[in-house]
């Protein structure tokens, strides 16, 4: 189950990220905080956080598996870091939902983008390390 939820989480990470990026590419502007695309982005983001948490719970039960042992502590630490950054990302994203946010919006958008990139890099590194681990 850890593997299933891991791949589900990674798929949700990319799906959630494609919503605002696709809107921006197509419309050449950002979507409004209360728009339908951002609502879908938020729903996928919350689902991603939930799937990542369930993945982490199942992973604890699988720590003695040959794949986890073969990948080593670094792969597990990278996954833990991705989960931590994901929680911060969700918090920043929920703040951005406030349409009255003015002065801090640009700063929060930058942090939201930085955490999104960090999550993507850490998640892919975690998955590659585990997928290529010698059992």
Total helices: the number is 4
The helix-and-strand class reads mainly alpha
Q: Unreliable stretches, pLDDT < 50, 5 or more residues? A: none
Question: Taking all residues together, what is the mean pLDDT?
Answer: 92
Order of helices and strands: HHHH
Structural domain tally: 1
Name the shape in a single word: elongated
Characterize the largest beta sheet: strand count, sense, and whether it forms a barrel. Answer: none
Range of helix content:
over 70%
DSSP, total strands:
0
Computed CA radius of gyration, to the nearest angstrom:
16 Å
Percent strand: under 5%
**End-to-end distance, in Å?**
18 Å
Provide structural commentary.
By secondary structure, the chain is mainly alpha-helical. The chain is 81% helix and 0% strand. The protein starts with a helix and ends with a helix. The model has no long low-confidence stretch (mean pLDDT 92).
Any descriptors?
about 140 residues; elongated; single chain; 4 helices; mainly alpha
Summarize the structure.
With 135 residues, this protein is an all-alpha fold.
Please write out the topology.
Blueprint: H1 2-27, H2 36-61, H3 66-96, H4 105-131
């Amino acid at each position: 189950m850890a593997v299933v939820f891991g791949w589900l989480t990674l798929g949700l990470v990319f799906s959630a990220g494609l919503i605002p990026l696709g809107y921006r590419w197509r419309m050449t502007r950002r979507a409004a905080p209360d728009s339908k695309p951002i609502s879908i982005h938020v729903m996928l983001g919350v689902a991603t956080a939930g799937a990542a948490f369930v993945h982490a719970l199942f992973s604890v039960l699988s720590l003695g598996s040959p794949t986890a042992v073969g990948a080593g502590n670094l792969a597990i630490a990278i996954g833990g870091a991705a989960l931590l950054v994901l929680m911060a990302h969700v918090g920043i994203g929920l703040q951005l939902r406030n349409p009255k946010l003015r002065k801090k919006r640009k700063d929060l958008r930058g942090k939201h983008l930085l955490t999104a990139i960090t999550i993507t890099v850490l998640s892919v590194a975690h998955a590659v390390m585990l997928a290529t681990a010698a059992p």
